[in-house]
Design brief:
GO biological process, one term: ammonium homeostasis
Structural class: mainly alpha
Order of helices and strands: HHHHHHHHHHHHHHH
Oligomer: single chain
Number of helices: 15
Membrane topology: Multi-pass membrane protein
CATH superfamily: Ammonium transporter AmtB like domains
Largest sheet: none
CATH architecture: Orthogonal Bundle
Family: Belongs to the ammonia transporter channel (TC 1.A.11.2) family.
CATH topology: Ammonium transporter fold
Number of domains: 1
GO cellular component, one term: plasma membrane
Low-confidence stretches: 478-490
Mean pLDDT: 89
Domain Ammonium transporter AmtB-like: 47-468
Radius of gyration: 26 Å
Length: 497
């Protein structure tokens, strides 16, 4: 039909062009158009696949961060749980999770198609999209594992990880990211929430709050680690055994966040109009990478100097956590705010983390990786931040014109109201699902390990031996000599150079 219309146009406009020539020209034009369309799909899918690989590389960052943040006697255990998050999450998300999240057409609450990727790919999604969303799902599970580290039975990890990635997280992502979700800004049927929908571009609420709130309930039900608070209730630092691994993990997460936030555009070959040939979605992707960077850097520096004033020394672990707090906060609004606003986001995120850590110590809440405070608290701040600082121009580019935007940018309070709704429903949903799960596991004696196992360390009692020959100075358990390392002191007679 397109070729016939093209031929008719040529014949009508050029009297000397015969039908055969017109059909030939139009056929060549159709072929060129199809080739350009195929190339656009190929470029967009390659971009999405590359972003998925970056997000998956964050699992290595989580593993290194977790390993360095726990004591040496639990290193193998925490590393194994990170592998489990990816493996168990892969199967559960393939069988159920993706269908619940993006199985449209469906209702506003839950998806109902593509179980086990049946009838896939579809006009709306390809395998690259599934892979990208799976990487997000296992990131949420990885957050929770940090909150309950060093005291949780292995079977509990299996159960909660599969449940979180296969059901809890997919429902939330359906609400806010699916075109059928009741609060999605891209909803195609029915009215948008407050005329806007929730803007949670890469998941400050959908990913980070889900993992943080789940970790909150797991850590509360299990209680603090042995020795975390003394008999008088004072906080006792149970320091991780390797700052080097923490720094390595933080840099890996920083690298992966460039797939997490900019990659959430899903496509790159899209123009924003004819006003500037150099400006398009590729420019928005670059801006998103910049806002992500600025928020993390600002939070890291704010944490550095703030902790120096509060405790009197420069602490690289605190700086790394501050860096990640900035990233978790900017994830919601990274695509719709100006770079200067990202600096505000990072500055406030650092103080949110510091304040929540103080509160946690006061109420005797023990989270070895500060995951609840970092991802849950700073994620909630990031959702609110978007409702305050989203700009009219960028909201129109990403989501369409005529939408409400940030309150402090002159856009009224509708977007902020939608963001508050997200915080409430995410907290409520995760509480309603994960609290009974952790409570049931505790009642069945499947959640927390025994006191003896916790004192000895799970590497020795549950995993066949230590990760390496090492000794925790705060560990009262007498390890066999073959696992001990002695400190080599310089000889008094040594001649200094």
């Amino acid at each position: 039909m397109a070729s016939q219309s093209c031929a008719a146009a040529l014949l009508g406009g050029l009297a000397n062009v015969n039908t055969t020539a017109a059909n030939f020209i139009c056929g060549q034009l159709d072929a060129i158009n199809q080739k350009l369309t195929d190339t656009t799909y190929a470029v967009d899918n390659t971009y999405l696949l590359f972003s998925a690989y970056l997000v998956f590389a964050m699992q290595l960052g989580f593993a290194m961060l977790c390993a360095g943040s726990v004591r040496a006697k639990n290193t193998m255990n925490i590393m194994l749980t990170n592998v489990l998050d990816a493996a168990a999450g892969g199967l559960s998300y393939y069988l159920f999770g993706y269908a619940f999240a993006f199985g449209g057409p469906s209702n506003g609450f839950i998806g109902r198609h593509f179980f086990g990727l049946s009838d896939f790919p579809s006009p709306s999604a390809d395998y690259s999209f599934f892979l990208y969303q799976w990487a997000f799902a296992i990131a949420a599970a990885g957050i929770t594992s940090g909150s309950i580290a060093e005291r949780t039975q292995f079977v509990a990890y299996l159960i909660y990880s599969s449940f979180l990635t296969g059901f809890v997280y997919p429902i939330v992502s359906h609400w806010f990211w699916s075109s059928d979700g009741w609060a999605s800004p891209t909803r195609t049927s029915g009215s948008l929430l407050f005329g806007s929908g929730v803007i949670d571009f890469a998941g400050s609420g959908v990913v980070h709050m889900v993992g943080g709130v789940a970790g909150l309930w797991g850590a509360l039900i299990e209680g603090p680690r042995i020795g975390r608070f003394d008999r008088s209730g004072r906080s006792v630092a149970l320091r991780g055994h390797s700052a080097s691994l923490v720094v390595l993990g933080s840099f890996m997460l920083w690298f992966g966040w460039y797939g997490f936030n900019p990659g959430s555009f899903l496509t790159i070959a899209k123009s924003y109009g004819k006003s500037s040939v150099y400006y398009g979605q590729w420019s928005a992707i670059g801006r998103t990478a910049v806002t992500t960077t600025l928020a993390g850097c600002t939070a890291a520096l704010t944490t550095l100097f703030s902790k120096r004033l509060l405790v009197g020394h420069w602490n690289v672990i605190d700086v790394c956590n501050g860096l990640l707090a900035g990233f978790a906060a900017i994830t919601s609004g990274c695509s719709v705010v100006e770079p200067w606003a990202a600096i505000v986001c990072g500055f406030v995120a650092a103080w949110v983390l510091i304040g929540l850590n103080m509160l946690a110590a006061k109420v005797k809440f023990d989270d070895p990786l500060e995951a609840t405070q970092l991802h849950g608290g700073c994620g909630a701040w990031g959702v609110l931040f978007t409702g305050l600082f989203a700009t009219k121009k960028y909201v129109a580019e990403v989501y369409g014109s005529g939408r409400p935007y940030g309150l402090l940018m002159g856009g009224g309070g509708k977007l902020l109201a939608a963001q508050v709704i997200e915080i409430l429903v995410v907290s409520g949903w995760v509480t309603a699902t994960m609290l009974p799960l952790f409570y049931g596991l505790q009642k069945m004696s499947l959640l927390r390990i025994s006191r003896e196992d916790e004192t000895a360390g799970m590497d020795l009692t549950r995993h066949g031996g230590f990760a390496y020959a090492y000794h925790d100075e705060d560990d009262g358990f007498a390890k066999p000599a073959m696992y001990m390392m002695g400190r080599i002191e310089p000889s008094p007679q040594a001649n200094p150079l």
